């Protein structure tokens, strides 16, 4: 056989094999997502803004294609991306309302056209924008991000532009063949949010998108949780154990990790998810009873953060320290390997 032809065939076979392996991995992740009761011994990790921090220091430009690729290499289950829209209607990955903190440009995202935004360079920086290293990476369009996760990992879309724009995002994902990899959060903390969610979800009964409930114990109770589970049957519920600045550290995880809540999770075969995200120091652990990434890293107490939530029944953690959280959970028996 001609050597050039043989080499081309070998490369083609290797590429197909790699795609099959990646696709099989996503299928395994989705199986664990959709069958929570079969995987209570495994804590799934969602990398907030991708893999962008380690030991409280920024290492990659948040929300960049590179940060997504590094998250995929890490082997966790999902990457979280914040979605905004440019002046000319292009969905882009950007956490802040303005470009000031995370790029070398300035101004509101909604005030710039996408072609002009492509000239901006992302910077590696922290939550306060104090440590800044300019890179050659640029702000990705949502379409680019969806292509990057194809067959590799789930993506948690943090929709910053309003639920009315979800349909366009889902349609884009469907055209790219990745709608089954989408996690979409619906807030359930007051009557207006519930009505808005019902109207939106009813339009997508046949979608492959995975809808999640987001519920705060400062706004809702167990009845609200049960009603949400019964109506939407979400694969996961983001439970927020609200923590007042300088308030007492939670010892029980709040009402959404009570025995009654755990029974509901089992009844509806759903994951309970906590966010341990970094905030400003005065608000440390704002969404997680004071037991957030700050405590795990600054106080070097991962057992009292990732371990605490795992022991309480949490099976999904969204964190700004995905590498450290995944490693600790794996070493302590809270993460099970995927088939190769």
| Strand order across the largest sheet | 1-4-8-9-10-11-12-13
Integer tally of domains: 1
User: What is the CATH architecture term?
Assistant: Alpha-Beta Barrel
- Bin the strand percentage: 15-25%
Quick one: biggest sheet? 8 strands, parallel, barrel
CATH class, named Alpha Beta
Classification by helices and strands: alpha/beta
The strand count comes to 13
Number of helix segments? 11
| Fourth-tier CATH superfamily name | Phosphatidylinositol (PI) phosphodiesterase
| Overall pLDDT metric | 91
CATH topology: TIM Barrel
Uncertain parts: 1-20
How far apart, in Å, are the first and last alpha carbons?
32 Å
Estimate percent helicity.
25-40%
| SSE order | HEEEHEEHEEHEHEHEHEHEHHEH
**Integer-rounded radius of gyration:** 20 Å
3D shape: globular
Summarize the structure.
The chain has a single domain (5-94, 142-331), classed as Phosphatidylinositol (PI) phosphodiesterase (TIM Barrel), CATH 3.20.20.190. Helix 4 (142-149) crosses helix 5. It contains eleven helices and 13 strands.
What does this structure look like?
The chain has a single domain, classed as TIM Barrel, CATH 3.20.20.190. The protein starts with a helix and ends in a 9-residue tail after the last helix. The chain has 11 helices and 13 strands. α2 (65-74) runs parallel beside α4 (142-149) and α4 packs across α5. By secondary structure, the chain is α/β, with parallel strands linked by helices. The longest helix is centred in the N-terminal third of the chain and has 32 residues, at 3-34. Mean pLDDT is 91; it is low at 1-20. The strands form 3 sheets. It has an 8-stranded parallel beta barrel, surrounded by 7 helices. A two-stranded antiparallel ribbon has the order 2-3. It has a two-stranded antiparallel ribbon with strand order 6-7.
């Amino acid at each position: 056989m001609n050597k050039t032809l043989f080499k081309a065939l070998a490369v083609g076979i290797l590429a197909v094999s790699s795609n099959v392996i990646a696709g099989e991995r996503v299928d395994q992740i989705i199986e664990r997502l959709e069958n929570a009761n079969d995987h209570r011994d495994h804590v799934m990790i969602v990398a907030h803004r991708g893999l962008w921090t380690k030991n409280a220091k920024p290492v990659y430009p948040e929300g960049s294609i590179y940060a997504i690729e590094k998250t995929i290499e890490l082997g966790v289950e999902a990457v979280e991306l914040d979605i905004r829209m440019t002046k000319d209607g292009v969905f882009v990955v950007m956490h802040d309302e303005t470009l000031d903190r995370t790029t070398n440009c300035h101004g509101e995202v909604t005030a710039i056209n996408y072609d002009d935004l492509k000239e901006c360079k992302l910077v590696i920086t922290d939550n306060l924008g104090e440590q800044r290293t300019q890179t050659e990476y640029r702000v990705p369009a949502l379409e680019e991000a969806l292509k990057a996760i194809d067959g590799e990992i789930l993506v948690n879309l943090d929709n910053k532009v309003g639920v009315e724009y979800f349909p366009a995002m889902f349609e884009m994902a469907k055209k790219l063949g990745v709608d089954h990899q989408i996690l979409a959060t619906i807030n359930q903390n007051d009557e207006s949010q519930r009505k808005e969610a019902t109207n939106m979800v009813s339009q997508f009964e046949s979608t492959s998108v995975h809808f999640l409930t987001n519920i705060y114990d400062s706004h809702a109770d167990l009845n609200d949780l049960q009603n949400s589970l019964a109506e939407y049957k979400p694969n996961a519920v983001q439970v927020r154990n609200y923590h007042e600045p300088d308030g007492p550290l939670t010892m029980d995880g709040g009402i959404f990790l009570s025995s009654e809540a755990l029974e509901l999770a089992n009844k509806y075969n759903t994951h309970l998810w906590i966010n341990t995200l970094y905030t400003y120091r005065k608000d440390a652990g704002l969404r997680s009873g004071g037991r957030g990434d700050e405590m795990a890293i600054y106080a070097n107490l991962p057992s009292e953060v990732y371990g605490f939530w795992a022991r309480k029944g949490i099976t999904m953690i969204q964190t700004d320290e995905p590498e450290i959280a995944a490693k600790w959970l794996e070493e302590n028996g809270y993460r099970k390997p995927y088939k190769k």
